[in-house]
Amino acid sequence: MNHLRWNILTTIPADHPINSYGFSSLIAQLLYNRGVTEPSQIEQFLKADSRLSGDPWLIPDMHQAVTRTYRALLSGEHIAVYGDFDADGITGTALLVQGLEALGGNITPYIPHRLEEGHGLNSAALEYLQQDGASLVISVDCGITGISQTAKAKKKGLDIIITDHHTPLEELPPAIANIDPKRADSDYPFSDLAGVGVAFKFLQALYQSMGREAQLNGFLDLVALGTVADMMPLLGENRYLVKQGLNLINTQPRPGIREMALLAGITTDNLNTDDISWILAPRLNATGRLEHALSSYKLMITDSEDEARQIAMVLEEKNAERQRLTIKALSKAREQILGRGITPILIASDNDYPAGIIGLVAGRLTDEFYRPSLVIRTGDSHSSGSCRSIPEFNIIQALNYCRNLFSRFGGHARAAGFTLPTKNLPYLEQQLRQMAAKELAGIDLRPRLDIDARTTLHQLRGNTYKSIQELAPFGQGNQPPVFISQHVEVADCQSMGNNGEHLRLKLKQNGVTWDAVAFRLGNCLSEVHSFIDIVYNLKLEQWCGQERLRLNILDFAPANQ
Q1: Which helix (DSSP H) or strand (DSSP E) does residue 408 occupy?
Q2: In the chain, count of helices (H) and strands (E)?
Q3: Whether residue 296 sits in one domain with residue 273
Q4: Looking at the domain assignment, is residue 42 inside a domain?
Q5: pLDDT in tens, 509-543
Q6: Rounded (5°) CA angle 30-34-39
Q7: Model confidence pLDDT, tens digit, residues 59-74
């Protein structure tokens, strides 16, 4: 039996115009699967150039934001940039601080403490910034649901400009401007920018108004880093921002990125989105999860090689500690979940869960059990939780339905967080369980694996991999192409890794042999028959200074005899 739900996407109709555009049948199929079928669409998708960049003035309130900021710059006002403590917020804060300082601004960065202040705008922090002399606060990656905090600051004479990418509530904060492409009244053509992406569009409008837009390209490395780290879809404008940002990282890396990469064992001459997702982003996030994210921010802005190396070493140590804490908490959460039995929504709570890693634990639970998951750190008076979900269950909609129970909440369809009085926890659990049971009834709760095309191992030879790379950058919304090959002979299969958690295979079909690796499928060794059907993508791996292609097995099943 398949471990995942295999969904082989529809083959291009024989009479579809895309078949006449000169692409190979495989590339045409991949473009068709991604909904990119018109000549103008195809060219823009493949080139991923500035034509994908939207007009920043189409985002509501942009004129008000630029006008107020320009006035603050002219009069030398003290401006505070208030960013979230994850990689998206850190890179966005660095971008705005450096971008405004380049215009002569008097700028102070502020990143709240995850454990002591929590997500979003904090009234005590805003009061502190005002007492410190700030007359204007510009948020990054937070604030769009901070209605009461913004209202309180406004009464005290503090102006706030919000730049955010989270889903707004029906009521907007009483800010000078609410810059968010997800606003219901937005005409902006692309709503899936990261927080750093929204900050970049604000900076773009400001620089345009001053005739200095050409200077913006130097910030695109930060935009790429934050966009990929926050798992935003690499479609539309994000393709342009990430492609250009990766090029900057690989040709002119800032000291912090270079030192962080070197300590992690990679170089910045061929860094890709996977390197950001699995290597750089966890390190940038580590300090904010355990202590304070300010050191990660400093790593992004320093021009000193020595300082960058010292900070990168701290991040490396914190990331190792974060990994240990995650493994320990995950073990405890799994024990709780399995002890109660697998239900449509998974909820684990304990007063010992480190607040900085509960989102990671929730994500691991969702990955393993394919259920929406909540992991909650309980306290005597208040508790905080992180949620991760699946496409079939919109977690932010569910939280919005329970909004009367929260002190604070926010997020996306697949990831969210909240704080609430501990006494409200039983009611929250009851309502979420009822909603999940209703919405997920009758659904096959296994991850769906979309398969781009049927192919043979022989068809993947030659320039196939190089051609596929024309569709990069890959990531959320534009995953690396997935193929299925049937009735493949297993010439060899061995366990590898700690406790045999992975499989290494040698596969043959019609005289062609490929090496393959099946990560985290070591427990399925007994299911490996002489002939199997495999679902996989292609990976280029470095080995003894040489590059070689292998198959990355995502799932397999015994072949029909």
Answers
A1: strand 408-411
A2: 18, 18
A3: yes
A4: no
A5: 999 999 999 998 998 988 999 999 999 999 988 76
A6: 85
A7: 999 999 999 999 999 9
